[in-house]
Design a protein that fits this description.
D-Maltodextrin-Binding Protein, domain 2; alpha/beta; 339 residues; five-stranded mixed β-sheet; single chain; four-stranded mixed β-sheet
């Protein structure tokens, strides 16, 4: 009899233990999932820091059932190669301004489209942005789970002379990443362009493959482009959306609970990323100045000359099918209404 009681007591304790474990882990029955994510930015960059936060948040909120491993600093290849890996299912995600497979995202890169963080946010959180992101799954087999800012407003630099007016770009060979709107902008300003991958840009500038480039202050600092560029001009001519691509097949087989958590963590990551950009951009510029580089800040009148020279790009974007005229008008209305 005593032996039976001991067995019953042990069974009760086991049941209570299992019940307690279930209470502690509401996702115990949902399985384990691994998410490998790549990006091109170095340690300290807002993308790098915000992705580390994303990985920690997902692990905590899924009770360790979804493990996110982030490979930054281009460890998995160029941005195009990383996106191809996601499309093929080799990895589960990547973040970066890579639009080869989703060229409609280029509509948000019209030159001088916005002037403030509020205007950028209004565009990236708009129904128009959601529609463009939704198109990605059908065309690329990826799901875009967040769209934030890729690094802040982008500036011009070169090694030949200060750029204070559009004519100063004539004769310069400016690096692009192959993005149409960057090429269109430089051509409108009188420059020629050459395509150099981001990871190779430092050496490309050092060896003279390109005379100059365009990037946000945080990227220039993180990649040390100021070591191989003498003259910078603060034009704030463009921002780039930063899509977080996830393989659609992997995403669609996740339990709905994990999809919800990951999407929420991605939204928090995007907001944190943009906050870091705003906090770090001015400091990055000051560090670049302290390095010995020259930074020219155009007057309002001088800046208007750049803006006027780039107006042709808007019609070219419509003609190229990047967006419709109605979508261009919608973006301009969103910007005008932003507070």
């Amino acid at each position: 009899m005593k032996k039976l009681l001991v067995v019953l007591l042990a069974a009760m304790m086991l049941c209570l233990s299992i019940s307690a474990m279930a209470d502690d882990d509401p996702f115990a029955s949902l399985g384990k999932f691994e998410m490998l994510v790549g990006h091109a930015q170095p340690e300290g960059n807002p993308r790098y820091v915000s992705m580390e936060k994303f990985a920690a948040d997902v692990a905590e909120k899924t009770h360790g059932h979804v493990t996110v491993t982030v490979f930054g600093n281009g460890q998995l290849g160029t941005e195009k190669e990383m996106l191809e890996q996601v499309v093929q299912g080799v990895t589960q995600g990547m973040r970066g301004g890579q639009f080869d497979f989703s060229p409609r995202l280029l509509m948000f890169t019209a030159p001088f489209l916005t002037n403030t963080r509020a205007e950028v946010t209004a565009l990236l959180k708009s129904d128009l942005a959601k529609k463009v992101c939704a198109e990605a799954e059908e065309s690329t087999g990826t799901v875009i789970i967040n769209l934030c800012d890729a690094g802040g407003y982008r500036q011009f630099s070169n090694n030949q002379h200060p750029i204070t007016k559009p004519d100063d770009l004539k004769g310069l060979k400016m690096r692009t990443n192959g993005m149409k709107t960057i090429d269109m902008t430089f051509v409108a300003l009188g420059a020629t362009t050459t395509t150099v991958p981001y990871a190779d840009l430092y050496m490309g500038l050092k060896t003279g493959i390109a005379d100059g480039q365009e990037n946000p202050w945080v990227n220039v600092l993180g990649m040390k482009f100021y070591e191989v560029q003498k003259y910078f001009t603060q034009v704030n001519y463009q921002f780039h959306p930063d899509p977080f691509y996830v393989n659609a097949a992997w995403w669609n087989q996740l339990p709905e609970e994990f999809q919800t958590i990951i999407a929420e963590c991605a939204d928090e990551m995007g907001d944190y990323n943009d906050q870091l950009i705003d906090e770090n951009s001015e400091d990055a510029k000051q560090q670049i100045i302290a390095s010995g580089a020259e930074v020219y800040i155009p007057t309002d009148e001088e800046l208007k000359a750049f803006q006027d020279a780039c107006q042709i790009v808007y019609q070219q974007m419509v003609d190229e099918g990047i967006c419709t005229q109605e979508e261009m008008d919608e973006m301009l209305a969103l910007v005008a209404a932003a507070k």
